[in-house]
Amino acid sequence: MAEEKQEPARHGGAHAVAAARLHGVSTMFTLSGGHVFPLYDGAVKADPPMRMVDVRHEQTAVFAAEATARLTRAPGLAVVTAGPGVTNTVSAITTAWFNGSPVVVLGGRAPDYRWGSGGLQEIDHPPLLAPVTKRAWTEHQANAVGAAVDEAFRLATAPHRGPVFLDFAMEALFGDGGEELSAAAAGGTEPAAVAGPDSADVEAIAGLLARASRPVLVLGSDVWLAGAEAAAQEAACELRLPVIANGQGRGILPAGHELLVTRARSAAFGGADLVLVAGTPLDFRLGYGEFGGRDGNGPAQVVHVADSPGHLATHCTLAASAAGDLTAFFAALAAAVPAAMRQAGVAAVPWADTWLARLSAAASDAIAADQALLTSDADPVHPMRVYGELARVLDDDAVVIGDGGDFVYGCLGTGLGYAIAARIARPSAQVVLLLGDGAAGFSLMDVDTLVRHRLPVVMICGNNGIWALEKYPMQALYGYDVLADLQPGCRYDEVVRALGGAGETVTRPDAIGPALRRAFDAGVPYLVNVITDPAIAYPRSTTGV
Q1: Which residues of the chain fall below pLDDT 50?
Q2: Angle at the Cα of 359 from the Cα atoms of 354 and 365, rounded to 5 degrees
Q3: Which residues contact 502 (CB under 8 A, 6 or more apart)?
Q4: What is the distance between the alpha carbons of residues 279 and 252, in angstroms, rounded to a whole number?
Q5: With contact defined as beta carbons under 8 Å apart, do 458 and 432 qualify?
Q6: Local structure of residue 184 (DSSP, 8 states)
Q7: Closest C-alpha to 36, from 72, 74, 89, 75
């Protein structure tokens, strides 16, 4: 007897899933909760069904959705239940906010008909999330759920990209939503066109470049997220600009490219007379926009380029700025500079033979200086040796995730969520999670998610038994430290094994390489727990990994 085809659901949850799919969503990250059951039912009964990945903490669901957005440049989707389900996402949503990641978080909510009576997990979520989202609101009507979800995705993906939160009264999700939202009703599936930068702004920037002698181009994550990497590379090559890559701007110029001088960052920023920053904020990572002043040089002029006017820096003095489609900006800049140079009486790019050569040499010197530590035989293990061994076994298309405050520098707790999403988004690539022993305490339980969903990931824990980013500064300030010690030699690999994965502890530098090869060959979540020297402050750079 032939299996009967399952009738599609008509409730609000089904409409939400249909709307998300119109925006390219293929995976829902979630942690089960009764308030959002219709969203699961909609995913199961969709044609084809939408993949659902259930995690062990709601922050992991949002981190996974964010990593999906950052790797695929399509919006990520997380679904969480009411009350603590939503409040558990705040750190992850905030991370997406600062990263400009297009993420939609859909939440459950207590029913309207009993609102104010103290219902199960009743809390008004949008006011909590409004400061760290592009918009946070509630939908109350079942027949408006699909349109509301469509609006959420359109907001999330419009520059400047970012997270959007939308919750639903129980009546809206469980109620009959009527006809399914069509692509036509949703306004089509193509993203809205983004206006290019003002031509006068581009010409002003071109004029500054024509008069510069020591320029630097900084490429940030938004260049990648906007799909402008080819235009950025072409402009940099045509203009022979030294490039420093920041965030997901890494990889726009491949490793070893003659213009890539990221390893000479200090010399470049200190000696530049013009710094053009595109697709990243002028925050603490870029000295708050203060450059130059080294070797008797004056302060550098600063140009900021963003995908929307609201993300241009206002806290520092800018020589010029431009906002709009980043592909259009780079194309226009490459076209405008030659004319500006002719107008300025400059026959050729003045910085190619001297300034670029100087930065290239400094970058090569920095890379060469690393070699002794990358191959260090020190016992206890020097943390740089981990990077050296990993670089030898990584493929060019590997995804490397950093989760930590010291072994690698980032937001604690992101790692497992990012790794889950990376394995799904890049099924044939190596996926490596570098995390410190401090970060391991935030999300290691989600190895269970990797195991249940058969998502093999290689994890490398730099285990020095301390909160080093706090321990040494506190000693410098007060002459002592407190609350900065963890369990020495803790067996995080045994935690992974207990959750169904595999792993081992490494205490000798010559054992790291073989352990990594076993990890990549294992085909299961595998943690290499490297016991490193607590007396060594970890580097702020991963030396090209």
Answers
A1: 1-3, 184, 542-545
A2: 125
A3: 496, 522, 524, 525, 526, 527
A4: 12
A5: yes
A6: T
A7: 89
Q: Beta-carbon neighbour count of residue 318 at 10 Å?
A: 15
Measured CA to CA, the distance from residue 77 to residue 65 in angstroms comes to 5
Around 513, how many Cα atoms within 13 Å sit in the side-chain half-sphere?
12
Q: What are phi and psi of 14, to 5 degrees?
A: -65, -40
Q: For 50, how many CA atoms within 13 A lie in the half-sphere containing its CB?
A: 31
Sheet with 502-506, strands from edge to edge, namely 399-403, 431-436, 458-463, 526-531, 502-506
C-alpha distances in Å from residue 483, one per residue of 178, 475, 490, 530: 57, 12, 17, 22
Beta bridge partners of 218: 244, 277
Q: What was the pLDDT predicted at 411? A: 77
Residue 47: predicted pLDDT: 93
Give dist(CA 96, CA 132) in Å, integer.
Answer: 9
Domains of the chain are 12-174 (3.40.50.970), 199-361 (3.40.50.1220), 375-531 (3.40.50.970)
| Cβ contact 543:390 at 8 Å | no
The confidence score (pLDDT) of residue 5 equals: 55
The pLDDT score that the predictor gives to residue 536 is 87
Structure tokens at 347: 């026959």
Tokens encoding 79: 């679904």
422, 402 in Cβ contact below 8 A? no
> Would you state the pLDDT for residue 350?
87
Query: For position 297, what pLDDT does the model report?
Result: 87
Given a contact cutoff of 8 angstroms between Cβ atoms, the answer to whether 464 and 435 are in contact is no
3-state secondary structure of 329: helix
Q: Determine the pLDDT at residue 295.
A: 85
Q: Which H/E stretch holds residue 434?
A: strand 431-436
Residue reference for tokens 């053009």: 276
3-state secondary structure of 323: strand
pLDDT, one tens digit per residue, over 168-206 is 999 999 999 887 665 545 555 566 778 899 999 999 999
Among the listed residues 477, 456, 429, 475, the one whose alpha carbon sits nearest the alpha carbon of residue 521: 456
Peptide bond into 215 cis (omega under 30): no
| Residue pair 423/431 in contact by the 8 Å Cβ criterion | yes
The full DSSP string for 117-147 is: S--TT----HHHHGGGSS-EEEE--GGGHHH
What stretches of 70-177 adopt beta strand conformation (E)?
76-80, 103-107, 136-139, 164-168
- Reading the block at residue 123, the tokens are 């809390």
What is the predicted pLDDT for the residue at 182? 57
pLDDT of residue 4: 52
**pLDDT value, residue 404:** 81
